[in-house]
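step=predict obj=NADH-quinone oxidoreductase subunit F n=745
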Amino acid sequence: MDLRFTDAKPTDEERAAVDACLGAPEVGWEGGERTAEELRWARGGHAARARRDQLLPALHAVNDRVGWISEGALDYVCRRLTVPPAEGYGVASFYAMFALRPRPARVLHVCTDLACAARGSAALTGALAELLGPPGGAAGGVRWQPSPCLGLCERAPAALAIQAGEQGPQAHGTDAADLADPVDPAHPANLTGSVGPAGVAGTTDAVHPPYRTGPVDRSGLTGPADPRGRVDRAGLTGPAHPTGSASPATAADEAHPAHPAGAHAPAGSADAETAPYCTAVVGPATAGTAELAAVAPCAAPEEPPAAAAVPQAGQDGLVLLRRIGRVDPADLDDYRAQGGYSALRRAFALGPAGVIREVLDAGLVGRGGAAFPTGRKWEATAGRPERTHYLVCNADESEPGTFKDRVLMEGDPYALVEAMTIAGYAVGAHRGYLYLRGEYPRALRRMAHAIGRARARGLLGPDVLGQGYAFDIEIRRGAGAYICGEETAIFNSIEGLRGEPRSKPPFPVERGLFGRPTAVNNVETLVNVLPILERGAAAYASVGTAQSTGTKLFCVSGTVRRPGVYELPFGASLRELVELSGGVPEGRRLRAVLLGGAAGAFVRPDELDIPLTFEGTRAAGATLGSGVVLLLDDTVELPRTLLRIAEFFRDESCGQCVPCRVGTVRQEEALHRIKDLTGAAAAGDIALLREVGAAMRDASICGLGQTAWNAVESAIDRLGVYAGALPGSGPAAGTPADPVDGGVR
Ligand SMILES: Cc1cc2nc3c(=O)[nH]c(=O)nc-3n(C[C@H](O)[C@H](O)[C@H](O)COP(=O)(O)O)c2cc1C
Ligand code: SF4
Ligand code: FES
């Protein structure tokens, strides 16, 4: 591809896809024929440049419609947004979900990452190669390719099929949550946001039966019935939208010269809801089911409900997972009937400073991996004098073995909408971005739907709950880049730049998205704010330990009997969690547990009494990270697992800084050389690994490089992987009830 504008033209389909996302070009300078007048002077250039943040949605639009991004299409997108083609190419080539060379419209992503590898992904890919040819081919109009973790680890081995250019995912296998929920005639859509607190509190008259999957009554929908069951778009782009400067605060924001107008593009961006593609998730996959899904994803059977990923679903005592399986994820009234929006009402009663006080007193600590106190982050953001503040919800969830945020978004989407509204209120933001992993089609649909319904009912928009506070949420879909989960890389990704982390300081609370003070929080972190406000800080903090308050979600996967998301109070031991999940299968022996994901650390079977707290895991030289608990039994070849971790970091390094760019490659090479060696034969490479690991840890710009050696180091030092025998593995400890010994059911 030539990195300058060429004569390549978009096809009609590509042009239509881009125009559907960006609107039709208004002047010839934006990619159409120029008039004689336009050849003398330029109009619209500044406006187009200010829409740079539409680059990623526009690339998605083409990729979704056609399956790949041609030179003509990229040129057209770049002209429309006045982005130099070299930069457009740099962005498009950054993301794994985009292709810049022709490929079939149907692509099957087959996970070969840690949990799937432990559950037979090698056999699956071998069988697929026989059926469909080698990976990367195009047999039968399908391309299949290995993929990093798809966030479906409880269903390992898992695969995701995507078909570009077909009717949207809602067109098939639709469950209730994918449809617009019927509007109660007593509470019609309220686009002007005049629903008051009493309205919300008092209208939860009908307690719905538990999560329904039956047909949805479409009478009373606010928009024209859409045969594809799409979310109605009333209120998405209409005059009631807060970008229409309905609130004084929003108007002030827009007047700010440094603020790109693109930041105020319609919320619930087009790409979240109108993308023309089909998806199918398969798991546990066989070659046959994966092939079937790849050939006809639009006709694939419906996925199991989110509650299927929660073995505790429906049990008493759950806090964050309490509604999963009980609430209809499509139905706002059902959410309200189950306590929804009481936390937001309390937030309005407390005021922003009062909310931050509660969160500080509750001791809430971020669940995205860095364990930073949420109240302090909010306080720092709220206290900045600049007028425009932003909230970003980090739903990128790409740490191998992590899937809790997906389950929360699929099973209880309004909870996140409510929590984001509270967070926005506390930090003084009028706009929140939900940066959602591109490989999460169902979470995307459900969040887009929930945001649309909340907006239609005045729970988002220019006057939330009639309290004079303007807030709206825009979804931004990631496109397959683990690094975009790093909080500053998200900013670059949203702004239409390559998703490379920024140097800190300045920290996001000072200069974040669009250079403005920004609070970035993980999905699970935000959802914790609801029980804090509903029950009060003291009640919340009475659960857990002094430094780790509340409950924690754990993503249990690998060779385990009952994989899934578990909720436990902080302070429970790893042993309790392993027992709850049934331990390793009958006749197997636990060999190691990876805590915290690829960036985490291995622990031995004789270390199961580690308390699952931030301080407890730290003291044990491990980390909770994003809540990954990957069990590996004695059938798993640990050197192969380490190699996979190293490959992951090599692939996902953004390449911006030398220690990480070079170090992750050297690490992978060394692990490759010693994959079948132990003792003296491996010693030279282990010494090299230590040297490279120290350089990455000390000198990398961001957490990816800083943690890329953690798991490997722990496997060498704690598990003695290359030493021969595994310390602590010993003979089976085994009473029949020992989870280490495959006896617990
Ligand atoms: C390479 C890398 C990937 C990350 N991925 C995620 C992610 O997918 N989700 C997330 O919430 N945090 C992720 N983080 C952590 C974020 O940078 C940030 O700390 C977090 O979103 C802050 O939210 P919290 O305070 O609520 O935890 C990642 C960090 C790094 C270094
Ligand atoms: S540490 Fe790695 S991922 Fe992070 S900025 Fe440097 S090269 Fe990029
Ligand atoms: S989906 Fe395969 S490891 Fe997560």
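step=describe
The radius of gyration is 25 Å.
step=end
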